């Protein structure tokens, strides 16, 4: 994987344990070494989203929040109305970006897309952990992100449909990994009890669905981003805006076509 990433032009350094410690002196790690991806970045989603919303509102974007889309009214191949639990909205263009819920919503439009929910758990440690480097603890499959005011430990890929049930053994596995890799970081039972879960929208081949569908002329799909939706969101947003503005897209949408080879009959 490292060679493959280097071929893409990413800067990657191999570090031994001492070099990792010199980069992150306040949270010693129980590891032989690590690969440092110098071109990687990390962020605090809650802060980014709050500021993005303010910025968009200042630019004239109107948000209609706390609504559930319950159905669509079509005229020919076009959607003309979107029904919510509170009102009916008229629409020139409709973008479906409803994550793991997309499959059910799209069925009512005659669009068959396979999107499964892949449940992930996250535990936020509020105390000062000393962790300053984001990391993927490969053997334990846990991602660690220092955020503003806390450190997030996230992991698990549970395919059990659309539900928010929490399995304690999975929570404990994340806590155990945190403790094994960072012996000086305390993840208390009280902290483990604050675990949250989210549903990643999984496509069958791990590649998102971005583009139009032949069944509806004014519909754009933007879903199936699996484990990478936070990172890929801005690029997807750009592609969606290019599609709707009838501009040529910044990159070919062929690999992301909702009707790619297997898509139609799944
Ligand atoms: C624990 C965890 C850690 C993760 N870490 C990373 C990471 O480090 N980097 C990364 O890139 N990605 C990460 N991801 C993946 C990322 O969160 C997802 O890929 C991303 O959230 C998908 O975005 P989305 O907008 O497609 O779907 P969602 O974020 O699920 O948003 C879909 C929205 O649609 C709404 N909705 C559904 N149905 C309806 C309806 N009928 N009417 C109205 N609204 C509806 C839902 O309520 C939801 O708010 C992580 C995911 C988890 C669970």
Name the features:
266 residues; alpha+beta; D-Amino Acid Oxidase, Chain A, domain 2; FAD/NAD(P)-binding domain; 2 domains; five-stranded antiparallel beta sheet; three-stranded antiparallel beta sheet; 29% strand; binds flavin-adenine dinucleotide
Say how many strands there are. Answer: 13
Tally of contiguous helical segments: 7
Q: Spell the H/E element sequence.
A: HEHEHEEEEHEEEEHHEEEH
Separation, N- and C-terminal Cα atoms:
30 Å
Per CATH, the class of the largest domain reads Alpha Beta
What do you see in this structure?
By secondary structure, this protein is an alpha+beta fold. It folds into two domains: 125 residues, D-Amino Acid Oxidase, Chain A, domain 2, CATH 3.30.9; 128 residues, FAD/NAD(P)-binding domain. Helices cover 25% and strands 29% of the residues. The protein has seven helices and 13 strands. The chain has a five-stranded antiparallel β-sheet with strand order 8-9-10-7-11, with helices on one face. A three-stranded antiparallel β-sheet has the order 3-4-5, with no helix packed on it. The two termini are 30 Å apart. Bound molecules: flavin-adenine dinucleotide (FAD). Flavin-adenine dinucleotide (FAD) binds next to strand 7, strand 11 and helix 7.
In a nutshell, what does this entry contain?
This protein has 266 residues and is an alpha+beta fold.
Topology:
Layout (H helix, E strand, L loop, with lengths): L1 H6 L4 E5 H7 L9 E5 L7 H14 L10 E7 L2 E7 L3 E3 L3 E3 L5 H6 L8 E10 L9 E3 L4 E6 L2 E9 L9 H14 L7 H4 L3 E7 L6 E5 L2 E8 L5 H16 L22
Parallel strand pairs: 6-13
Antiparallel strand pairs: 1-2, 3-4, 4-5, 7-10, 7-11, 8-9, 9-10, 12-13
Bound molecules: flavin-adenine dinucleotide.
Flavin-adenine dinucleotide binds next to strand 7, strand 11 and helix 7.
């Amino acid at each position: 994987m490292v060679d493959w990433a280097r071929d893409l032009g990413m800067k990657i350094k191999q570090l031994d344990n001492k070099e990792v410690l010199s980069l992150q002196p306040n949270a010693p790690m129980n590891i032989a070494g690590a690969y440092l991806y110098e071109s990687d970045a990390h962020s605090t989603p809650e802060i980014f989203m709050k500021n993005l919303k303010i910025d968009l509102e200042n630019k004239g974007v109107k948000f209609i929040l706390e609504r559930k889309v319950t159905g669509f009214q079509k005229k020919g191949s076009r959607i003309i109305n979107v029904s919510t639990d509170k009102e009916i909205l008229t629409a020139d263009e409709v973008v479906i970006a409803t994550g793991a819920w997309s499959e059910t919503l799209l069925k009512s439009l005659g669009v068959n897309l396979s999107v499964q929910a892949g449940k992930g758990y996250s535990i936020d440690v509020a105390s000062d952990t000393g962790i300053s480097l984001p990391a993927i603890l490969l053997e334990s499959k846990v991602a660690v992100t220092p955020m503003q005011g806390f450190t997030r430990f996230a992991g698990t890929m549970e395919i059990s449909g659309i539900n928010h049930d929490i399995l304690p053994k999975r929570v404990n596995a994340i806590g155990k990994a945190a403790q094994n890799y960072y012996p000086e970081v305390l993840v208390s039972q009280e902290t483990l009890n604050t675990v949250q879960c989210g549903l990643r929208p999984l496509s069958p081949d791990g590649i998102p669905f971005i583009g139009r569908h032949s069944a509806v002329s004014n519909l754009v799909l933007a879903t199936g981003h699996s484990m990478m939706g936070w990172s890929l969101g801005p690029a997807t947003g750009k592609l969606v805006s290019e599609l709707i503005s009838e501009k040529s897209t910044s990159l070919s949408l062929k690999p992301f076509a909702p009707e790619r080879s297997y898509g139609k009959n799944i």
